[in-house]
DNA sequence: TGATAAACGGAACATTGTTCCGTATTTGGA
DNA sequence: TCCAAATACGGAACAATGTTCCGTTTATCA
């Protein structure tokens, strides 16, 4: 979260840094497994840490939720750059859109928390957009310039469209289980996504 | 809630009936004042009743929320009939739409509960629509027949439109306070509503 | 290596939903 | 009118959870 800023008084203790990371990682796992409403204690235990430690870094439960969310937004946005480096533009675009779709699907539970009215989450939508829109815009532009995708699609529109697709296709809640209906819904979602991607890359417009 | 059905074994005890009503009334008040997340104890105390009494009638907190919601839907829908009896068709229509708008505004907190994924609330949207759509349809038809409103508007569309208007204009949460911004938003909402009503009654179409 | 600041862990506290049960009230019949 | 059974009542007690507190442990640095 916060780097070594020159002006900062003291270094962060090694164990503290290690634990902060462990907590974030545990929270990510637990949120995915048991939903965003999972008890703080469960996260602390998974991280192999006492609740006190967790609360020192994240004074409110919502702070932890926000931190995990931002961290995953960062990771997903960062993947855009990686994919752009490792693949031809059209392919990078396709892959990232699938990656993004997966992000949305796994954040379903969180999404409902966002609209819960808790002011703690007010900043998240902006964070979401300000990271994803440029990330996608770059992929889109590169693909368009290479003639590997149409150029008349707005990044934000696409983000929203896929977001809607994905939320419509997943059962509400945010747990992870092996619910078969859930899997069918997912398959359907990914099929629709592929349709959009194909349209984007090979559609009649240029 | 449940009437005297001939097949029923025993009569409901008088104090029980009285208390059920007191609880519903108290819940309505408390939800309006402190939001739908208000503690059960506060509702019980307001009703002048122990929590045990409350829980016998409403085994889950959500049961109480649902009951209050339905009761207010009933009340609002019933007002449509009353207004139709006491006013000329166009006027009845106007008045009821304002009444409905007020209903929506005060149920903002509840609305977010609806989309919380809790299956306890799954039946509410249907209840909402199946009561309000016919109620409005009647007013609309009567007004149209009397030449006091245009006839090309769908009842459900109108319900949704006003619903959106009202939710957009109110600050999230569902509390009641004297927040001045909230009041401004409300004024704006009602101004927009009046615009729609005027369009409905005096617009160019017949 | 030892002093000190920083961090740790988890018991303890506060709030809330829910259950339990001894007590009080209503009801229907004698 | 009065009694016994049925019913309902109230609120203490329990469980789950977020959050705070503080005695103990550990990392850092000279």
UniProtKB/TrEMBL annotation, chains A, B:
HTH tetR-type domain sequence ranges: 17-76
Organism domain of life: Bacteria
The keyword DNA-binding is annotated on this UniProt entry: yes
GO molecular-function term, one example from the UniProt record: DNA-binding transcription factor activity
Alphabetized Pfam families for the sequence: TetR_C_43, TetR_N
DNA-binding region ranges: 39-58
Keywords, alphabetical: DNA-binding, Transcription, Transcription regulation
Matching InterPro entries: Homeodomain-like_sf (IPR009057), HTH-type_TetR-like_transc_reg (IPR050109), HTH_TetR (IPR001647), Tet_transcr_reg_TetR-rel_C_sf (IPR036271), TetR_SbtR-like_C (IPR049445)
UniProt name for this protein: TetR family transcriptional regulator
Presence of the UniProt keyword Zinc in the record: no
């Amino acid at each position: 979260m916060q780097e070594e800023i020159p002006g900062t008084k003291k270094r962060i203790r090694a164990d503290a840094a290690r634990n902060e990371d462990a907590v974030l990682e545990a929270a990510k796992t637990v949120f995915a497994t048991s939903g965003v409403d999972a008890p703080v204690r469960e996260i602390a235990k998974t991280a192999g840490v006492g609740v006190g430690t967790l609360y020192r870094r994240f004074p409110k439960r919502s702070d932890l939720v926000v931190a995990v969310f931002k961290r995953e937004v960062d990771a997903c946005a960062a993947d855009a750059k990686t994919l752009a480096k490792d693949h031809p533009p059209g392919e990078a675009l396709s892959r990232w859109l699938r990656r993004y779709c997966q992000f949305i699907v796994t954040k379903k539970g969180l999404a409902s928390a966002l609209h819960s009215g808790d002011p703690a989450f007010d900043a998240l939508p902006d964070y979401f957009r300000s990271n994803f829109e440029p990330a996608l815009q770059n992929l889109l532009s590169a693909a368009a310039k290479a003639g590997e995708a149409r150029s008349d699609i707005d990044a934000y529109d696409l983000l929203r469209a896929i977001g809607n697709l994905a939320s419509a296709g997943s059962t509400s809640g945010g747990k992870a289980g092996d619910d078969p209906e859930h899997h069918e819904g997912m398959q359907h979602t990914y099929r629709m996504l592929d349709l959009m991607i194909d349209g984007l890359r090979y559609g009649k417009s240029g």
